[in-house]
Structures are given as C-alpha cells and as structure tokens.
Specification:
The chain has one domain: Rossmann fold, CATH 3.40.50. It has a 6-stranded parallel β-sheet, sandwiched between helices. It has about 270 residues and is of the alpha/beta class. It has 11 helices and 6 strands.
C-alpha cells in the first residue's frame, strides 16, 4: 500500500486534475468567494454614480489575456447597464476591438440597451498616449467616427460629451502597461476618476496607485472578476473559472501530501 502511494501512475493524476477542471466548468458548482477591499471599492464607486452618468471603458488586451479579462469586462458592462449608466467603449490595442464587440454582443441583449443611446463603441485608435491626450481636448479629434462608421455627433448619447470633463469614470481593462499611462497622464492631468482591472501579473504594480488614492478601485485577475460577479449577483464565467482552479489546486495539494507520505514510509523501510 505504501509503495502504491509513492508511485501513483501519473495518468491517474492527469485524469483527476482534468475532471477537477471540467466538472466545475460544466456544472453550477461554486465555492464561497471573499470580497477584497480593492474590488469592493471599485463596485461601490460605480454603484454610487448617478443614472445616465457616462463611463468610458478602455479594452486594452488581446486574446492571450481573454480568459482573465473578458469575464471582468462583461461583469462591469452588466453593472453599468443595471445602473442605467451610459457606456463609451474603446481600445488602444488592435486586437482588443473584436473582444470589446464580443462582450457587448453578449451583454447588451440581456438589458435591452440601444446603440447610440445607451452605449457607443469607438473602436481602435493607434498611438496610445497621443489618443489619451487628444481626448482631453475633444474626443472627436481622436475618434472622428465610431467603430461602425457613424459620425459621433449623429449619435444621441454623444451630444454634450466632448472630453473627460463629461466622463464620470474611466475603467481601464489592462493586460500591459497602458493602465500606467491612463493614471499618469489622464488621472494626474485631468483629475479623471479611474478604476483599473488587470491581469494577475500586472496587479502588484497597480497597488501603489490604489494606496496613493490615484485610482478608485482595483480588480485583479480572474479572482477579482469572480468577486465582482458575486457583488452584482451575476455569477458567470469568472466564478466557474475560479471554482475549477481552486478544486484543481486542492487536488494537487492532496497528491503532493500523498506522495510525500509514501516517500517517507519507503525511506523508513529502506533504513
């Protein structure tokens, strides 16, 4: 029995880990999720915005970061539409544009929102820092037309929305360091209120901004997205992903413990 513990066939391990990932993704299984203060701050700030406030969401990631950040984007869109906020969505990454449109197509039908009235997709514009600064003067100089080719002045929602003075909140969903530019250039110069959502490897770099009060909240990685889904009572991809991840981690820890027990017993027998 001891030898079997120490020499578990790796195929059994792979099989168990696979089941630990697949089952939570397919079934409505969820573990308790503790809400962290940075995510709670982001949620509370959006929750307190008056209806019809304008929220600018910058989708600055590509398909490599989609598993972490797409659920986060969808959760924020759901919250914004639940609060009857006006959403402007844009991207400074070329491959972020189809992901932004995909999120809109997934969320908008559930809330019966209309394009040009409740939300606008500006699409992609090259030259991140120059686009940010130009939008401080006039959004139309950076984006003469939206992603569908419409003149911005032809969209009812954009009437009276000229620059950051007319935007109540900027949400940067980041896989790289574009979030730093938003904070240092736009947050500092225009006193723009900012919330950052980012991948796990970027999150530690964002905490100094949070502690300094330069951003209103921080949503970090899939865990942060799962917390946000829990806060808005819309458990979805992020919660399922975190459950699968947690169960797989527990299984790995169990196998490590079993392997070590077997190893120590074998070594004792040899002595």
């Amino acid at each position: 029995m001891v030898k079997k513990l120490a020499q578990i066939d790796r195929r059994y391990i792979y099989g168990v880990i696979t089941l630990c990932i697949i089952i939570p993704l397919l079934k409505e299984i969820s573990l308790p999720i503790r809400i962290s203060p940075p995510v709670s701050s982001a949620y509370n700030f959006i929750e307190k915005l008056p209806p019809n406030s304008v929220v600018l969401i910058s989708v600055d990631y590509d398909p490599a970061a989609e598993p972490e950040l797409q659920p986060m984007l969808e959760a924020i869109l759901k919250h914004a539409f639940m609060r009857n906020l006006k959403v402007i969505i844009m991207t400074l990454w070329p491959l972020g544009s189809p992901l932004a449109e995909e999120a809109l197509q997934s969320v908008v039908p559930k809330y019966n929102k209309k394009y040009g009235i409740d939300y606008v997709n500006l699409g992609y514009a090259p030259g991140a820092s120059s686009v940010m600064l130009t939008m401080g003067k006039d959004i139309r100089e950076a984006y003469p037309k939206d992603a569908r080719g419409n003149e911005l002045d032809s969209l009812p929602m954009m009437v009276g929305v000229k620059n950051y003075e007319d935007i109540s909140l900027l949400v940067g969903i980041e896989a790289g360091f574009t979030g730093d530019f938003w904070i240092r250039l736009i947050g500092a110069q225009y006193k723009q209120k900012i919330i950052i959502g980012c991948t796990g490897v970027i999150a530690p770099d964002m905490y100094p901004y949070l502690q300094a009060g330069q951003i209103e909240g921080l949503i970090g990685a899939l865990k942060g997205a799962a917390e946000y889904e829990t806060l808005i009572n819309q458990r979805g991809k992020a919660v399922r992903g975190m459950t699968a991840q947690s169960v797989a981690h527990l299984a790995l820890i169990l196998f490590i413990i079993i392997g070590n027990i077997g190893f120590f017993f074998l070594r004792k027998e040899k002595k």
